[in-house]
Amino acid sequence: MTTQQIEDYALIGDLRTAALVGADGSIDWLSLPRFDSPAVFANLLGDETNGSWVIAPAGRDRCTHRRYRADTLALETEWVTAEGRCRVIDLISPTACEAQVTRVVEGVVGEVPMHMTLTPRMDYGSITPVLRTTTGHAVAVAGPDMLWLHTTAPVEQVAGGWVTDFTIGAGQRVSFVLTHTSSTRTGAPEADADAALAATQTFWEDWVSRSTYTGPWAEAVTRSLITLKALTHAPGGGILAAATTSLPEQLGGLRNWDYRYSWLRDATFTVQAFLATGYLDEAQAWREWLLRTVAADPERIQVMYGIDGARRLPEQTLEWLSGYAGSTPVRIGNEAATQQQNDVWGEVLDALGATAAAGGDADGVHADAALHEALLDTIERTWADPDCGLWEVRGPRRHFVHSKVMAWVGVDRVVRAIEDGRADSSAGRLERLRALRDTIRNEVVRRGYSRSRRSFTQSYGSARLDASALLLPRYGFLPWSDARMVATVEAIERDLTDDGLVRRYAVRGDGANVDGIHGEEGVFVACSFWLADALHGIGRTGEATALFERLLSLRNDVGLLSEEYDPTSGRHLGNTPQAFSHAGVVTTAVLLSDARYPTLESRLEVAEGAA
Of 444 and 420, which is predicted with more confidence? Predict the structure, then answer.
């Protein structure tokens, strides 16, 4: 199995798929042609027999240094050896017509012996393709998939793959281009490594130039924005939760899930980050994706979809993969798509309203009338029901406080749209919605706050804390100045942290395992950003800034964050890179920089008058 830690991986991608490149020069994860397609390199979740692509100095393991080339997603990995110095530049060009991985070896100093091994394995490492080598190309075919390798180096076909050994001298370049096509293709695809590198650099530099962020953490914010953009599906506008499946939340544990899909909730956090930094086009693209996805039947909207809008994401186990660090099962698909999660509808209404406001959309809710009506109807029908909550528990449904608060948010956003003239309604309906808003709020304050715990809790009647309570003022439910919010922040800081970093909830407690899954997990990175926001909100800005900068220090050497972190071992946990985490980098930086943050500023203004 791979010897790389999760934080040893860097991301490359083309807004259609993504690959993880280890610090040892091995691509150990790549799904083709899309993020959610079967992997052709699955060493990440198994071993070398499940496919990988290594380019590195002969006999060397970990690189000396690596970085992204300026503000792009082109990765430079360098080795300094006894013979000299060389680098490998890895990228997947976002301008290519087909998914095309380009790897360029450059000699810098001396003459360095290099080794390349390419072992493709289709269908998540389970199928060895048929190989053939022709003039200028090596080809792998299995079922519907064909891989074309074009290289300037002579390759030798061995059992199940190709190898080559060559020496790279100072000033020399050797390129490798791997293109995915349909297996019915008869002619070789074009492969121009230099053109791909130039086009990739231009694409990302142009995109980054649109950012409006001017605060003190520009490098971190830019890198997180690039990562969030890399997790969007350019053909349609869907936003992924992460680029991987089944990286464990506890090494050796069972908490291994497929995150290569578009959760509506997670996407709204990414939309907030884009809106906060001037990327309206990305927010609007997600809105259009959502409208297309639910257009035929908005009343049956679900909490998550495939990146192309697919509704059915059946969860299954890949028995032949041993799992990262022995963490099984390895899952594809995600049955959370069928769960009742009552918070999602309010988050979507909030994001749609913020996108319309940022774009100066005079119609506002009118443009999305059918979807808004369906979301509101769902809230009215289900807000009082127990659900699985934002953490997608697989244990008993509960009356989760966050779900109730987000139902309030959804009703509030519709009420405000009607009051502002952005939505039509009769006077009677407006009064009914105002009354419902008050009913939900009064119930949450009465049943969701524990006087003995001095905190809002995870669910009604429970003493368990939940990091989502930190979001109440962010959505305008209560002002930060409310004594109950100050007490909640202090309780979470005191009782729901590990070495100062926030767990999303206590896995055990109340005499039961709340989420129905055995084992523990690390601290949840996004929740720690929420705590930084909360500390700032209650006037402890110096501590908020210190926590934020500590969180930035958890990023790996190329600025990436996973879903979770283990403070004891200092290791990343969970799927990577995680959009939730990188959205937190952006929105917290904007907040602490006192830069323009329209979605949050408006909520804070509302919140100050809400209590």
Answer: 444
**Alpha-carbon span 32 to 99, nearest angstrom:** 7
3-state secondary structure of 57: strand
CB 403 within 8 A of CB 341: yes
Cα torsion angle, 445, 447, 452, 458, sign? negative
- SS3 (DSSP) at 360: coil
Q: What angle do CA 463, 464, 470 make, to 5 degrees?
A: 115
Burial class (CB in 10 A: 0-12, 13-18, 19+), 86: buried
Contacts of 537 (CB under 8 A, 6+ apart): 473, 480, 485, 489
Please give the mean pLDDT across all residues of the chain. Answer: 92
pLDDT band at 208 (very low <50, low <70, confident <90, very high): very high
d(CA 506, CA 460): 16
Identify the bridge partners of residue 601 per DSSP, sorted by sequence position.
none
**Per-residue confidence at 604, pLDDT binned at 50, 70, 90?**
very low
Q: Kindly state the helix (H) or strand (E) to which residue 20 belongs, with its residue range.
A: strand 18-22
Separation in Å, CA 121 to CA 4, 41, 378: 19, 6, 44
CA distance 231 to 551: 21
Q: How far apart are CA 193 and CA 295, in angstroms?
A: 41
Please write the tens of the pLDDT for every residue from 80-137: 999 999 999 999 999 999 999 999 999 999 999 999 999 999 999 999 999 998 877 8
Q: How far apart are CA 469 and CA 485, in angstroms?
A: 9
Domains present along the chain, CATH in parentheses? 6-205 (2.70.98.50), 210-608 (1.50.10.10)
- Are 16 and 233 in contact by the 8 Å Cβ rule? The answer is yes
Place of tokens 């407006």: 430
User: What is each CA distance from 237 to 233, 240, 313, 424, 578, in whole angstroms?
Assistant: 5, 10, 19, 29, 17
The predicted pLDDT at position 519 comes to 63
**From CA 588, how far away is CA 591, in angstroms rounded?**
5
Residue 1 clears pLDDT 70, i.e. is over it = no
Tokens standing for residue 485 = 């919010």
